[in-house]
């Protein structure tokens, strides 16, 4: 078998679709990055350390923003003649204080033994290293709630008071704590007092408009040119805006993009189509069950069937097109047609219940409502509704 010939070419660089990849630009996170910079620039100008909290729901860019920030801040500080270094610790993998602290020592001494030293001893080693190299270290504790739940806030307390015993005015450790939950509330009072309330940076869910440039940038760097058109990129952003755990999750958007690209390739194409995106969504977890479809009124099924047929080769259709085809379908199935007002009422309720997505906007000639599908392929939906209408 000739593998090269059988597959389409969509993905140019799969590594750029991986969750560990750190892009240069983070659309939608300018404000959070500026806040971080505002808090940390004092490290360079007046040698003071900072302790900062980043929090927000799944896939809102907390980890990637912290990584990008540390990389860029290190460069910026170097230009100003200050050496900055950072260590990134995933606390879901390193759930206890000594394992997390070991990662910090290991950063400076690759041969450091992984047992036999207490947290305090390891801290002394780090202190010496920082003084010897005249470094300011940023310790990032990602998913820090795992660590706090397992081992309390001792490590955070010690790190945040790292410089306290010294008489020298130079502070040399800063902390970035990251979690979905409000980890500030999880901290014990003693550790909490090292954190100013104002040092909390919120990462809200991404609305569709912010996912569009995020996914657009990812398309540009990871796929071949012309792999997805703008309409379909809009569809992808819309689905990612709603789907996933609670919507607004960039990780889910990137996962969908990759899956849709693979589906297109397996089908021997060089372009992602709307149906590929819906199939990808369906594979990630479809909400539209047969049970839900069965509960629909006859008239609603006709509208849905019309929408499915209109959407077979398109990302979006209009309510006008659905209504035209709806009339034909009602005749086909011998069902009485609804009048204008009731047609709208039914269509809106299909949208409210999540069977269709509708989006109304003003254009030159008045208002247009665009309709799309996100949870199921148009082909599958058509087949299911037809079977039900006949059965
Ligand atoms: N603004 C953005 N621009 C480009 N890519 C982004 C952006 N925000 C998130 N991503 C990408 O989305 C994915 C998820 O982001 P990240 O891992 O930072 O989320 P998180 O908030 O840490 O989620 P979790 O709470 O699950 O750890 C990553 O692949 C990341 O590169
Ligand atoms: Mg994360």
CATH superfamily of the largest domain: P-loop containing nucleotide triphosphate hydrolases
What order do the strands of the largest sheet run in, or round the barrel if closed? 2-3-4-1-5
Please give the share of residues in helix: 40-55%
Small molecules bound? adenosine-5'-triphosphate, magnesium ion
Estimate the strand proportion. 5-15%
**Which parts are unreliable, with pLDDT below 50 for 5 consecutive residues or more?**
none
- CATH C-level class of the largest domain: Alpha Beta
How many beta strands in the DSSP annotation?
8
Biggest pleated sheet:
5 strands, parallel
- Structural class of the secondary elements? alpha/beta
Keywords:
binds adenosine-5'-triphosphate; 3-stranded antiparallel beta sheet; binds magnesium ion; Rossmann fold; 18 helices; Helicase, Ruva Protein, domain 3; alpha/beta; single chain; 3 domains; 391 residues; 8 strands; Arc Repressor Mutant, subunit A
Mind explaining what this structure looks like?
This protein has about 400 residues and is an alpha/beta fold. It folds into three domains: about 10-15 and about 205-285, Orthogonal Bundle (Helicase, Ruva Protein, domain 3), CATH 1.10.8; about 30-200, 3-Layer(aba) Sandwich (Rossmann fold); about 290-390, Arc Repressor Mutant, subunit A. It has helices at about 5, 30-45, 60-80, 95-110, 120-135, 145-150, 155-160, 185, 190, 210-220, 230-240, 250-265, 275-285, 290-295, 300-310, 320-335, 340-350, 380-390, and strands at about 50-55, 85-90, 135-140, 175-180, 200, 315-320, 355-365, 365-370. It has a five-stranded parallel β-sheet with strand order 2-3-4-1-5, with helices on both faces. A hairpin with a 2-residue loop joins strand 7 (about 355-365) and strand 8.
């Amino acid at each position: 078998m000739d593998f090269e010939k059988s597959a389409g070419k969509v993905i140019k660089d799969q590594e750029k679709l991986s969750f560990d990849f750190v892009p240069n630009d983070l659309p939608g996170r300018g404000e959070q990055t500026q806040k971080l910079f505002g808090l940390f620039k004092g490290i360079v100008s007046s040698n003071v350390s900072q302790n900062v909290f980043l929090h927000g729901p799944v896939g809102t860019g907390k980890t990637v923003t912290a990584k990008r920030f540390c990389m860029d801040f290190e460069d910026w500080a170097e230009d100003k003649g200050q050496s900055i270094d950072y260590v990134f610790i995933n606390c879901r993998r390193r759930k206890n204080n000594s394992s997390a602290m070991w990662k910090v020592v290991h950063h400076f001494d690759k041969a450091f033994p992984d047992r036999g030293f207490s947290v305090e001893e390891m801290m002394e080693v780090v202190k010496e290293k920082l003084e010897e190299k005249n470094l300011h270290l940023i310790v990032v504790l990602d998913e820090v709630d795992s660590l706090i739940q397992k081992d309390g806030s001792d490590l955070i307390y010690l790190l945040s008071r790292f410089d306290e015993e010294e008489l020298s005015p130079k502070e040399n450790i800063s902390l970035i704590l990251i979690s979905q939950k409000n980890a500030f509330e999880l901290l014990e009072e003693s550790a909490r007092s090292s954190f100013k309330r104002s040092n909390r940076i919120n990462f809200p869910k991404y609305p569709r408009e912010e996912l569009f440039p995020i996914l657009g940038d990812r398309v540009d760097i990871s796929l071949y040119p012309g792999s997805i058109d703008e309409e379909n990129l809009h569809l992808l952003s819309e689905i990612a805006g709603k789907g996933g755990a609670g919507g607004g999750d960039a990780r889910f958007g990137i996962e969908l993009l990759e899956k849709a690209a693979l589906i297109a390739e397996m089908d021997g194409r060089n372009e992602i189509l709307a149906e590929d995106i819906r199939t990808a969504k369906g594979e990630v977890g479809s909400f539209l069950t047969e049970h839900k479809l069965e509960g629909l009124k006859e008239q609603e099924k006709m509208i849905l069937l019309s929408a499915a047929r209109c959407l077979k080769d398109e990302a979006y259709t209009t309510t006008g097109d659905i209504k035209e085809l709806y009339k034909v379908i009602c005749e086909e199935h011998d069902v009485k047609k609804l009048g204008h007002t009731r047609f709208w009422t039914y269509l809106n309720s299909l949208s409210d219940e999540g069977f269709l997505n509708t989006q109304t906007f003003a254009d030159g000639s008045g208002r247009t409502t665009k309709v799309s599908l996100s949870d199921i392929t148009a082909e599958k939906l058509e087949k299911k509704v037809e079977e039900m209408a006949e059965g």
